[in-house]
Amino acid sequence: MNKYIKKLNNFLINEISQLENPLIVEFGVKNGISTNIFLDICKKKNGKLFSIDIDDCSNVSKSNNWTFIKTRDDNFEFLEKKLPDQFDLIYLDTIHTANHVEKIFYHYYQKLKINGLFIIDDISWIPYVKDNYRNTFYCEINNQETFNRILEIYRSNEKNFDLEFSFLDEGLAKIKKNNNNSLNLKRKIMSRKHSIKNLFRKINAGST
Q: Where are the domains of the chain?
C-alpha cells in the first residue's frame, strides 16, 4: 500500500464509508487513485462522485456512479449549474498555493452538509525540505504557506468547524462542518516568537 492510499484510509475512508448515499466532489483527478477509492464507496453505498479536472480524465472509470467535468475548480458560474447543492465530502487536490486553497475553500464550504468533511491535500512541507527525500523548493514553501493559511482561517472560525491534520506523506487537513453559519474572514495569528519576552526566555533557558 503506497503512502497516499494509506493516508486516505487512515484519515478519511473509514469515516465516509459509514455514510448512506454519499455525495462527493473531488477537485483534481490526475491518475485517478482517489477517484477509484471514492467510487468504490459510492458503489457500495449508492452514492455519487463528481470529479473536476482541467485535463480530460474521462477514461478513469465507466461507473454510473461517476460524473467527470472538464474545467477549472474556480470556474464557479459554470460549475454551479453542474453540481448538486450539497455534499458530504469535498476533496481538494488541485493548485497547492495558499491563495488558491483559500479561494476554493471559501466558495465551496457553503455546499457542505452539517458534519460534512472538507479535505485539503498537500499541507505538509516536511517531505520537501532541502535534506529530505522529495527536496522541492516550490512544494516546501507552498505547502507551509497553505498550512499556515488554514490555521488563520480556523483562528476566526473555531466554532464553525473542527480541524485535524495528518502529516503522512504530503499530509491532509480535515475540516468538519459544525453549523450553517457563514465563514468569517481569516485572522492573522499573532506570534510572540520574536518578542523581547521570548528572547529573555531563551537566554534564561540557556543559562540553566
A: 3-206
For residue 206, name the pLDDT band (cuts at 50, 70, 90): confident
> Which amino acid does the sequence have at 75?
N
Q: Looking at the chain, list the stretches that DSSP marks H as alpha helix, in order from N- to C-terminal side.
A: 3-8, 14-16, 33-45, 76-80, 98-108, 137-155, 196-206
- Please count the other Cβ atoms lying within 10 Å of the Cβ belonging to residue 36: 15
pTM over 0.90: yes
Dist CA 74 CA 104 (whole Å): 7
Rounded Cα–Cα distance for residues 139 and 96 (Å): 8
* Integer Cα distance of 60 and 49 in angstroms: 13
Rg (alpha carbons) of the chain, rounded to whole number: 19
Residue pLDDT, tens place only, 99-152: 999 999 999 999 999 999 999 999 999 999 999 999 999 999 999 999 999 999
Tell me how far apart the terminal alpha carbons of the chain are, to the nearest angstrom.
47
CA distance 91 to 97: 15
CB 171 within 8 A of CB 163: no
CA-CA-CA-CA torsion for 132, 137, 139, 145, nearest 10 degrees? 110
CATH for 3-206 (3.10.25.10, 1.10.10.1450, 3.40.50.150, 2.120.10.30): 3.40.50.150
